[in-house]
Amino acid sequence: MSALLEQLARRQLVWQGNNQHAAYQPVASGYAELDQQLAGGFPATGLIDIQTDTGIGELRLLLPYLQQQQSAGRLLVLISPLAEPCADMLCAAGIVLSQVVIIAPKTSKDALWAAEQCLQSGSCASVLLWQAPLKLAQARRLQLAAEQGAASLILLRRPQEGLSLPVNLSIKLQAHRQGVLLSVQKRKGGWPAAPFLVDMQNRWPGLCFSADQHWQARRKAS
Amino acid sequence: MALYLYLQFPALQPDSLGCAAAQQLPVAVVNEQHYIVQLNTVAEQRGIALNMALGTAAALCHNLQLLPYQAQLQLSILQSVAQQLYQVTADIALDPPDGLYIRLCNMLQLYQGLAGYWQALSQVLTLLPYRYYYASGTTPFAAKCLARRQLNLLTGEPDALTKELNHSPLSFTELDADTRQQLQRLGIDTLGQLLGLSQGELARRFDSTLLSYLGRLRGSFYHALHYIQPEHSFSRYVELLYDIIDTAVLSTPLHVLLLQLEQQLQQINAACHQLQLSLLFRGMPAQQLSIGSAQGEYRAANWLKLCQLQLDKLKLTEPVSGLQVEVTAFVPQQNQSDDLFQPVQGTVSALQLVSLLQARLGYHAVSGLTLQNQHLPEHASQRPLPLLAGKTAVTALALRPAFLLVTPQRLTEAVEISQGPERLCPDGWALEAQRDYFIGRNNKGQWLWLYRTAQQQWFVQGIFS
Lengths: 222, 465
Prior knowledge:
The structure holds 2 protein chains of 2 kinds.
Chain A: H1 3-10, E1 26-27, H2 32-37, E2 42-43, E3 46-51, H3 58-70, E4 75-79, E5 84-85, H4 87-92, E6 100-103, H5 108-121, E7 124-130, H6 136-149, E8 152-157, E9 169-176, E10 179-187, E11 196-199, H7 211-221
Parallel strand pairs in A: 3-8, 3-9, 4-6, 4-7, 7-8
Antiparallel strand pairs in A: 1-2, 9-10, 10-11
Chain B: E1 4-8, H1 12-15, H2 20-24, E2 27-30, E3 36-39, H3 41-45, H4 54-60, E4 65-68, H5 71-85, E5 91-95, E6 99-103, H6 108-111, H7 114-127, E7 133-137, H8 140-148, H9 158-167, H10 177-185, H11 191-196, H12 199-205, H13 208-218, E8 234-244, H14 251-267, E9 270-281, E10 287-297, H15 300-313, E11 320-327, E12 331-332, H16 350-361, E13 366-367, E14 370-371, H17 377-380, E15 381-382, E16 403-410, E17 415-424, E18 435-442, E19 447-453, E20 458-464
Parallel strand pairs in B: 2-4
Antiparallel strand pairs in B: 1-6, 1-7, 2-3, 5-6, 8-11, 9-10, 9-11, 9-12, 14-15, 16-20, 17-18, 18-19, 19-20
Helix pairs in contact in B: 14-15, 15-16
């Protein structure tokens, strides 16, 4: 190997295909097809970027993961959620409510500060952050904080074009009648994947239209 | 044999100005009659002496910094010194304005003699910034007289003490000026001469105060001392040498105060949950900040961090002239027991984290979530203080949205209903207020929680996320 290549490899600017090791510790997401695509599940630590519209099933996708993250007794922090979080749904998903902390900061700067403090502390397992504009340097800083505290930060924001952030996993969600349509945009140690359907009919039958319902609806329309 | 120690602090007020800049400048304390009553070492080197008139002092030294004499401050400093010394010696009585009586005869066995005792006591005294003079004596007044002569004499030999006491001039005694003058006219200049006279003779010529003083000096009269009790509170005030408008600069004097708090808390193995920080201004009433730590904290560094977060939020309209830190209740320290097999990721516990967040974002910006046994959705979820365990017996209702809108909004778009209705009635089964709940999906693919009122109006109350 040339000296230049060796130097680049040492600075982790290039890597070779044969020393594939997992970039992160996966935690099963609770959805078989998703686990298969993500090689095991969501990352246990670091940043997870989810580009989604609100209310299409993004939290339902995360609930089994959050429940597992929280089970070791660490906190689940919700920073500036869209509206009043409802205890019924979280409790029904097996999340311990006494380990949930909700933070309502006034400015997005305070929200980022709170996220960094929570991630760094080591007492939080997962932090959910809604709709915070994030710059590259801020994302890097949060990533470092998350690694320090072995926590994961889940960014929930609207689909947007722009610079790709240094995250462990970036996915995009689209609404679908049987669940959500998920496309992996970026995954550390893996490849982007084509959109595929995460089927929620088994887990959330009340919040899906089954195929025959769909036909009935169509017939009514015609 | 009874043995007492007297400590005299000649310059409590100048020495309490903690910062290094103050130690470079000549500082003097002036009383209401414009006489110098206390001064620091720099001022002493410039030729300023005690009881010098203010004009003379100012002429001698152009950059002399003057402080007014404050009896209350003097007393509080003296009390704080006594509290610090209480850690090594038991019986301490205050002698305002600048002295402490310590009964040491009953401490000697513990420290195995005077040398060991003095070693322990002087270790504590050197930690404090105050200069002091000391002397021992067989009675409190004897010790005081010798200490005022600045002898720094510590011995248990009665002969040596009596010899020194006999040499003491009358100006170092507790006698008032008139009595001293009378005695001087009789040719009595030292205590030795006075003690040699017969009591009957003295009783005929002088009033009872002289006799009672001499009786207590000899030890033949009982001298009542009010020994202090350890207090479970903390209150310290620091006068800033110059006014500070920048909250970042305030952290330096504040750290000094917090270190004193840490020291006191550490010694009694305690912590505190709440701390009152007062910022004092010249022309405004003081501003009170209440800083809390949910876990209970004693370390100065952690308290400083919490204080700074509150100070950062503050906009000062006027410079701060003084700082006060007060703690009213102490709690025993509790050790956090960590899991032996699970590595600890961070150094901040959940309670500490919550305190930190509350300090910067405000007390009400951080909350927890509990489930109440209520069928109406707006009453089922409540937001109490964080990290409180709610009732565990409550079972969650199956299909509820992730988010509830604070005020329901009118439904303005077409939705496709997937489930419903589920009829909910408020208290008393008021049929007019009943709602039929449905789950629906709009064109954008959002799952909404809708209800229809008895008047057939449709509202959106929640979003399934």
